[in-house]
Structure formats: C-alpha cells, structure tokens
Amino acid sequence: MTDRGDGPIGSLPEHLLVEILTRLPTHEWVQISCVSKHWASMFRGEYLWQTAIARKWPSAGFRKRWPGPIPRGSARRRFQALYVSENLVPSGGEIDELVGHTYLYLKEQLERVAVPPSSILHGTIIDQFIACGRTGEKAHELASNIWIAVIDNLEENQQTFMLLKHLAQEGDFFLPFPYSRSYKVLWRVFDKLFTDFRDCFNGADYHEALAGAKSRFQPVPSSWLGH
C-alpha cells in the first residue's frame, strides 16, 4: 500500500475519485481499497458510502430514522443493509433497509462467543418491526425470512455446526404470537444439520438430534435419516 495512488488518477480531486470508484463493481472494492492509504481512508469515511447509496438507491437518502432497538448506523452500515435487503432476504421485490439492518444485527449476535437465547433475539426483531408499524403477522413473517437468510449464509465450519446444534437443542418457549419461535426456522436448522453438517456428528449426537427433530416434526424427511 502506498501513500497515494500512482498515475494521473491519484492526483484527481477526492469527489471525482469517489465518483469513479463507486461506479466500479462492488465485489472489487476490497481490493481497490488496498491500492493506497489515501484510497483506504476514503473507504473508511462516510462520503464514499453516501455517494454509493445515492447512486444505487436514490430514494434511500430520504428515509427517516426509525424507533426501536436496532439502529441505522453509519453510511457504510446502511450500504451493507441495503445490499442485503436487495440480494439476500426475499421481500417481494421491495428494498427495505430495516430488513437489511435486522439481518446484520442477527448475524452479528449469532457469531458472538456467548449467543443470546433465540427467544430474546426473535423478540427484539419482532419489537423492532412492530415499532416501525408492521402488524404482528407481518413482523413474524419478516423475522422468519431473516432468520432463514442468516442461517443459509453462515459459513460451513465447526462454529456454525455448534451454533445450529445449540439452536436445535434450545427448549421450546411458550410465548404468544408473534413472539413464538417459527417452526419454519426450526425446520431449516435441522435440515442444515442433517444435510450440510451430517459428517460433523458422532453417532450419539446424531441420534440425540434426530430424536429432537422427531419430537417436533412428523414425519421427518428421509434425507435426514441415516448416519
């Protein structure tokens, strides 16, 4: 990494440089930020991300902050949330920034060393959507979609295997709708365990997990059977 970008482009005014960089493919930005210390500082700042948001999602700049426990955060955080809403969480063709922020919040909580109980996380998400005017039914639907999207996009490693096992083994919390756990999400947890992580089980753990699945779902898919 050098102090300034080499060549004529390195001497451009910062606002023009930002205009150029934000037109480049998003997947190249990490590599681009390593060209020079000056470019790296631009990617750490707010102006580049604000420009990128205005270019890609023009109406997002007019949205007000919302009440509730999940904040909107920096311009970089907002860009990540908008990208998630557009590409990772199904929302009927709409780009909902709050959905993206909720996805990021849940993913970060699940990656902690001490993961909070899923009932607490689910309740926080429900409260956030209700505070922003969603009905209980809509809040539950959005929360379920976000849970499934996060679970589907976790890395396939031992940490994820232990997390899914933990979620599968959590006791049932008898909470009123919409705070009750989604069976659609729990099904996805077991499905990931018995398909993507089958080889991580030892015999005893597999049969314990399968017994837990059978106590909740009948019949269980044939793809879950056999170890």
TrEMBL record:
Gene3D superfamilies noted in UniProt: 1.20.1280.50
PROSITE patterns: FBOX (PS50181)
SMART domains: FBOX
Residues in F-box domain copies: 6-52
Record-linked InterPro entries: F-box-like_dom_sf, F-box_dom
Protein name: F-box domain-containing protein
